[in-house]
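Researcher: Can you fold this with BIS(adenosine)-5'-tetraphosphate in place?
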Amino acid sequence: MKNYILFGPPGSGKGTQAKRLESDYGLVQISTGDLFRYELGNKTELGQLAQSYMDQGRLVPDEVTVKMLARKYNEHRDAPGVIFDGFPRTIAQAEALDHLMDQLDEEITALISMDVDKDELVQRLLERGKTSGRADDANEEVIRTRLQVYENETSPVLSYYENQGKVQRINGMGAINIVFQSLAACVR
Ligand code: B4P
């Protein structure tokens, strides 16, 4: 089974591209952001806990996120492959993912990192905020907090996988179709 991590800052297009990889290559998208939004929409206990963090642009605590992710992964063991979208976002999550892979005799195939300029990220998220109804896209201050959280807590995850020789980088600027072509070349 192939296990890809799609990596990049908020607004880099992880969700957008993961959906296309799912429809074109049969890889299953596992998005922690979508999983939290689902729980939130159903007003579950987990959803209410997650909302307090997400609305401020902060990360949901690792132990909650890891447990939810492991449960979801186990539902898709017969898939040809998965795309982890928005996970891992901290070193602790990366270590937990390695542990899960070991337990299941699996391994991370590659981490694909999408590079996008900061100004472009802010523009994309503000644009989405006009229609998404997402509190974390609604104002620039929360968006800047998310980008700062990414710098501080998530970007070290890249070095973690660089040390394992698993990182592939692509240019995330440009039209969605062009970015998808670069991405497709990494998973073929
Ligand atoms: P996520 O749901 O993961 O969302 P994201 O980082 O904002 O978006 P993504 O990179 O997927 O961008 P998208 O394709 O949508 O996280 C939301 C929150 O959930 C986090 O802040 C956190 O609180 C919580 N969370 C999630 N995972 C967690 C974890 N592991 N641990 C703890 N907390 C966690 O694209 C954005 C916009 O750009 C879209 O409107 C899209 O149409 C547009 N776009 C995409 N590609 C484009 C392109 N090439 N050109 C122009 N526009 C483009």
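Model: Folded with BIS(adenosine)-5'-tetraphosphate in place. The pocket of BIS(adenosine)-5'-tetraphosphate is lined by residues 8, 10-16, 32-33, 36, 53-54, 57, 59-60, 65, 86-87, 89, 93, 124, 128, 136, 146, 175-176, 179 (CB under 6 Å).
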